[in-house]
Structure formats: C-alpha cells, structure tokens
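To: structure subgroup
Subject: Chain for Friday's discussion

All,

I'm putting the inputs and outputs inline so they're searchable in the archive.
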Amino acid sequence: MSDIFRELLKKIGSGNHTGENLTRAEAATATSMMLLGEPTPAQIGAFLIAHRIKRPTGEELAGMLDAYDQIGPKLQPIDSPRPIIVLGIPYDGRTRTAPISPIVALLLAAAGQPVLMHGGDRLPTKYGLPLVEIWHGIGVNWTELPLETTQQVFEQTGIGFVYTPRHFPLTKRIWEYRDQLGKRPPFATMELIWCPYAGDAHIIAGFVHPPTEAMFQAALADRGVTKFTTIKGLEGSCELPRDRTAIIGLSMLGTTNEETVAPIERLHLMARDYGFSSKNVPLLGIEELIAQMQEVLRGIPSELTQTALWNGGFYLWRSGICDSMQLGIAKAEKLLIEGAVAAKLLQLTQVVQSLSSVHNSKLLTVEN
C-alpha cells in the first residue's frame, strides 16, 4: 500500500463537506503512481470512482497531462509551415453515427496540413468502433509499428497515429479498471486534450457536456496552450454534426491573457446553411462503413461524402489553408474528385507497408 497515494485519495474522497481538489502537482503525482502501478488495486479503483464523483478540475487535468508528458510517448517535430493538428477522439469509439475522421485526416494531409491521431482498441464503456479499426479497413495497419517507425511515417506522409496499446502500454492498467468500474474515469476526459507531439500543435478536442469544455479551457490555460479548438461533436468526437447546430470554441491562436481559462470565440455552424442536408449518416457496421468510405475516396456523391465535405471544409478553413468555409468546402470537393485524397491514402499505405517490412526484417536478423 502507498501511504502517499492514500493521502491523495483521502483528499478527493472525503465527501462534499471535507473533500478537496488536488493541486496540479498532486494530480501529476497521483497519475504517475497509477500508471506505474504503485498503489494497490483497491486504492486505484477507489481513486478513479471518487474522482469521477467529485468531478475533475481544470487544474487537475493539467496535472494529469503533466504526468502523461513525463511518462508517455511523443512524436518529434516534423518540418511543417503550420502547427500540426492533433485530433482528440473519444476512446470508446462510435456506435450510432458513421465516423469520417480518417478521411478528413487524409484530406488535410493532401492539402499540406499534417495530422496526428491517437487511440487504442475497443474500450469501455461503449466498446464502439475505434479509429484504428477504420484505418485498418481502408488499408493502413498502425498497430504493429514501433514509435520510431510511426515517426518516419509521419515525416514522409504528414499523418501519424500513436497507438496507445503499443506506444503507451502503461495506460492499459487504467482501462482495465474502467471496464471493471463501468464508468469513464477523468482519464478519459484528459486524453481528449492530450498532445503526444513535441512540436508546435493545434489541439482539436470533442466534447458532449458544456462543463467539459470549461475544464479543457482551464487545463490548457494552466499549461500555456493557446492553439486549440473545441467541438460539441458527434458522440463527443471532433466531427461536426449535420442534424443540429455545431457549437465550436475557437481559441485566438497564439494569444494569451491573464484569465484562469484560455479565451475562446464562439462559433455556431448549421449544415443546411452550406447546402447540406440536416441528417447524420448512421453507422450500420464496419463493412458497410468501409464500402462507403471507398466511395468517398473515389469522389462518388453520397451522404457520407457530404459529411466529408462538411467536416473537411471546416478544417481546411480552421487550419488557415482556406479563407472561408465556402472555399474550404470547394477545395475539399476538388481534392476528392481529382483523386488527391485517394493518392494520399495510397502513399500512406505504401510507406507503412515498406517501413513495416524493413522493421520486420531487422527483427528477423536480430532473432537469427
């Protein structure tokens, strides 16, 4: 049993009248200890459920991110004229609406905007469809690449994926508790704004509940992060909905102030104002989704193509590649119709396969 951890647990688990929030340093200590398995299972389980009931603060999220920065993996800076985009996607996947983020990542990379994603396999509480399975379905297997090889892929293609089961296996312990508890711990919230990149980055984070966005702002302000976007997206993702107003928080990129939260400008977008129908594409299964994505990549008009244009247009504008949403949507359509997005996927697939072969050959040589 860890006496140090017990004191931190007592602090957050003492109830409404005597309980206290952790300081940033204390939250970092607690996170590091849990990742390293220093407390007992009883202590870790009690901490995770107590922290969820109490609700984390922005300062606590900042401390948790500090621990991830110290212990976790990071891709190194690549040559890019603009900050890379880090897409924070929920870790229990999608169950109701068809994801489009891999297509958006390919579209952005084809336009010269590097994108970094991160995530793992199907996880509680939803056990929904994760990004890594979608990538695999369209021909890109991120799961077998060591971090050094992922770095090379990122440098050559402008697309990276930090696969946590391989690149940050210490997190597996936390997800086992999450399964047993049946609830998302604050780690799930924190990882939406985690940035496994050592260079200049623009963090995109999805959320469901407004208090989560406020926590993001406070945590990012604590850490001095000024480039971020928050999106009340589909199933808490970074994807703009079509059936309702997309509520977006835009940081004033590169600005700082003395407030306790990072400043944002509120933006509301309606799909119908840009010529799209007010309907989200349902998720009917991985096989059908991959078939739909192949149509999108071929430039064939479809409901999922409309979702790709809606999201692609926004991100092309937000990244500064296009001066307006309208121009972003037009450019996204051109990139799809002219085959630039499909060509980026082909390049990515070939680079991953080539570097994987080199890595496997080296392993065989070492084993022999």
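Points worth raising on Friday:
The two ends are 43 Å apart (CA to CA).
The chain has a mean pLDDT of 94.

D.
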